[in-house]
Amino acid sequence: MINSKQPLILVSNDDGINAKGIAALVEVAKQFGQVLVVAPEQGQSGMSHAITSAVPIRVRLVKEEANATWYAVSGTPADCIKMAMNQLVPRKPDIVLSGINHGSNASVAVIYSGTIGAAVEGTLCGIPSVGFSLLNHSANADFTASKELIYPIVEKVLSEGLPHFSLLNVNIPDIPFEKVKGYSYCRVTKGKWSEEFEKRTDPQGRTYFWLTGFFQNDEPTATDTDEWALANGYVSIVPLQVDWTSTSLLDTMKKSWSLEKSRV
Amino acid sequence: MINSKQPLILVSNDDGINAKGIAALVEVAKQFGQVLVVAPEQGQSGMSHAITSAVPIRVRLVKEEANATWYAVSGTPADCIKMAMNQLVPRKPDIVLSGINHGSNASVAVIYSGTIGAAVEGTLCGIPSVGFSLLNHSANADFTASKELIYPIVEKVLSEGLPHFSLLNVNIPDIPFEKVKGYSYCRVTKGKWSEEFEKRTDPQGRTYFWLTGFFQNDEPTATDTDEWALANGYVSIVPLQVDWTSTSLLDTMKKSWSLEKSRV
Questions:
Q1: Residue-averaged pLDDT of chain B
Q2: Per-residue pLDDT tens over the stretch B22-45
Q3: How far apart, in whole angstroms, are the C-alpha atoms of residue A258 and residue B156?
Q4: What was the pLDDT predicted at A4?
Q5: pTM for the model
Q6: Backbone angles phi, psi at A53, to 5 degrees
Q7: Considering only CB atoms, which chain A residues are within 8 Å of B187?
Q8: Is the CB of residue A247 less than 8 Å away from at least one CB of chain B?
Q9: Residues A109-122: what's their mean pLDDT?
Q10: Which residues contact A233 (CB under 8 A, 6 or more apart)?
């Protein structure tokens, strides 16, 4: 796969530079070209597209391999991509890969996900970007099948690109390779997280809360969603856009809203 | 404006419970009903839709007024809305208002904005939600005109609601009320932030970076964008959707992609 003029592949994640998932992703990426890893020093799950401006950011060269250089950044996934683009890349990367996340980023998890935050930042930089997640939260999750399932996606996006302002959110069911039925192109499942705090009392008698909860699928019978695909043994590939304008509501507003500036 | 059965208005922000902007927003909200303020203890600018799961969260009752109760939360704007909905609301709020942010959230700032993070979380809870921002970063910014300009928008959304999975991003130019030309319904400007780190050396001789940079408008001549509206004296109202599926790319993929599962 490697051409004489090797592609440059920027890799990040939100579970941190030491996560098993990013090691698996780098293994795949190395088959396609030169890899630059820029990932958070520590876990940054649920950091969405957060950026760090209140405190300074540090960068640490972790290791240099023949075809991969690893940096750790004391910030968020989006910070990592910004830092890479501004300080670390020798040229514009050909692709940004984020993950492999330990745990699902299907449905509205995409909004909270630091894995997707990194991929969205890559997209804003004009680079084809893909976020990958395995439906297994364990630190010791098995990424063997994931590596094989990711390969054709990286190959496709690297050779053909993606439309401007678009990215892919890929989720992988936690089942053996043989049982995976294939790839499903689908949309974001509508849903939300419910009952989200566990109330406790500390040794000083003061109340505190742990974020918890469960996913509530608002459309469990729809068959064109990522949740359906995953529950039925498919790798879900959801194309996302970073332009959040609601064109339908904009049309309605232009036609029928008539707000007037007036003194209250 | 206040009916016998008063609306319940949930207010949050990302500049923190003590910011001048949220006080201005609460002043407006009180004219429409009972107000519940649940805002971060500290500034959370640039926190996007981040949520806090690695550390516990605490809640502090700040003050109780005749028609407003104020709570501070040791977390992000999205945490505040989750905490409000799960622990603090007497019933489902009729509207979520976030802001008034000190500084612009136009164009792609919407992706990084904690102000919008709170409004998106309100939207996920099925509540009509609006984020407000004034184009002035100063802690002591003047919100006099903003209060008047916000009023008709709150009135409209409170009485008519918004389509499911939609919210509004409102930005206000930093000019006197008399000079504001009116309201403009517009789309997110395509652009990005560039040259984003300032490199420094600490007293121990080690390198660190401050996030900085400037906004680069990719379509400065387009007249239907929020950046254009603001530069020309209008309050920009951008309808956003929280379903990020790219339907156009999904169509393309379904028609012409044919990824095959295969051993590498």
A1: 95
A2: 999 999 999 999 999 999 999 999
A3: 10
A4: 45
A5: 0.95
A6: -125, -15
A7: 243, 245, 247, 250
A8: yes
A9: 96
A10: A173, A175, A179, A180, A181
